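Hello,

Our lab assistant flagged a job as stuck in the queue for most of the afternoon. It eventually completed. Since we weren't sure the result was trustworthy after the delay, we are filing this so someone can double-check. Below is the sequence as submitted and the structure that was eventually returned. Let us know if re-running is recommended.
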Amino acid sequence: MKRINVFSLLALTGFCALLIARPSARVFAGPSSGDEQQINPPPFDFADFFYQENGANLSILDTPDSERFGRFRQTGPPAPMGRVNWVVDNSNTSPIHNNVRILATTGAYRDDTGLPDVFFNIIAFVRSDKFFSTIEPPPGSVPGTPTDPNNLVSGTPNNARGITLEQIIGIPNGNLPGCNQGAPFDPNPTTGCQSAFEAYAGLTQRVNGVLAPSPCGTMGDGLQPCFPVTSVETPQLRQDWRVSSNRNRIDNSASFSYFSDNLLGMWVITYHWYTQFAIGGRPGQMVPTANCQKVLAAAAKQNGLSLDGTPIIRSGNELNFLEGQPGIPAQFGLAAADQPPLTAPCAAEGKEDPGGADGGPVWLVCPTIPDPTQGGIARDAFLDTVRRPNGTPIDPRFTHTFECLRDTGQFCSAKQAAHAGLAVSTLGVGPNP
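-- returned structure --
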């Protein structure tokens, strides 16, 4: 791959400015919104050169396995009957994006608060680390010399910042432990740590009418029944996504910032499930423990039930409490003494094999919409959310929020906008201030 040129750096700088500053108002003349005033552009796919310069391998991205919008999946999940997931729209003016405008808008809980106020676009699925390419040096270049001042040699970090895209997003099952809060990324194989931007997928655990307490593949225990992990498309989910776009370097919650460093908006998928201690189904643990029965009853009372009958998990603290992780505040209205022990956790989590052995998505190309107000969600966009067989959403708050943003350009209330991290003093808000 060629090193980043001046045009690309200018484009990248402009993209970063777009994420941290509010651009001036403009009229968006695309087919989605007629002539109403737009401040935030709707989501488009990235341009090919921008993928390459951030370390993506186009020969993998553009295959049927990746299912990239603009080449595949124009119809079918998540689009409902009679709708399309993306359209060609030549109104785009961003130099780092192409003309594929994304209509499929997925709702997610915010990792730290559990609120249903995050929206993103699942552009492509990454099923192995072959997606991450390396930079080829110019012929005759010597690392560290004027012919290659940035040490852009084959096999080293795959973008000009000197940090691999995998390291920014998160490397599943890597030898490096996670970084402590605020600790800088350190690739040292002995003393280092790694950061991760995680999207949490809750797949249905019901298989042939019974709940399976373990995933199939490398994350599982090798026993049957197990639930498949080869797809994270909406029909396979038991509940809506949860994402950690709140993690950033400014408040020391991560080694990198999602919107400043993760320029392709990618995620490493963390799968989470209920264990045999919560739902039984394994030799020696055919029925749930009394502790997990109590905890799941409280979780279901607070959050409601997912499609497979297990409680919805909305936040990071809720999942960590179910896993028995130490230092977690009590959840679901319970006491600290009710937390499951690490030896008998009610829930567990894991990541797929980065080499692709599990056959499912390991990462997502799935940019979060930085500001979904004032045009960030277009009039012709549709909500991708988990629904019951009768078509009703399992969490109708996603629908309510999405419709406010789509139809009015604002969150439904000033309080909701504040929770989403927007400066409400500069925004007109929706119908319930």
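-- support follow-up --
The delay was a queue issue, not a problem with the job. The result is valid. The CA atoms of residues 415 and 433 lie 7 Å apart. Residues 6-133+365-381+399-426 form one domain.
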